[in-house]
Amino acid sequence: MDSILEALEKQIASQILKQPNRKIAVDEPLISSGLIDSFSLMDVALYVEDAFGVRIEDTELNAETFDTLTQLASLIESRK
Predict the structure, then answer these.
(1) Exposed, middle or buried by CB within 10 Å (0-12, 13-18, 19+), for 33?
(2) Which residue segments constitute the domains of the chain, with CATH numbers given?
(3) Alpha helix locations (H) across the chain?
(4) Which of 2, 18, 59, 73 is buried most, with the most CB atoms less than 10 Å from its CB?
(5) Residues of the chain with pLDDT under 70
């Protein structure tokens, strides 16, 4: 799971936030804090689907499922 967390952090920091040196804590709120918006959320979902070969349902694109790196990594792990 560490490699998934690392890949997610790198992608979100560099491609979504455009801050490649930014560190994102595994439990830092992404959506509920306003760090990423709904448009960025779609980009994250597309990245997850492409990079990890898992399907993300539209109903899962919310703060309950996607708010932290840990939640995202758990979702990916459960689909592999």
Answers:
(1) exposed
(2) 2-79 (1.10.1200.10)
(3) 2-11, 38-52, 63-66, 69-79
(4) 73
(5) none
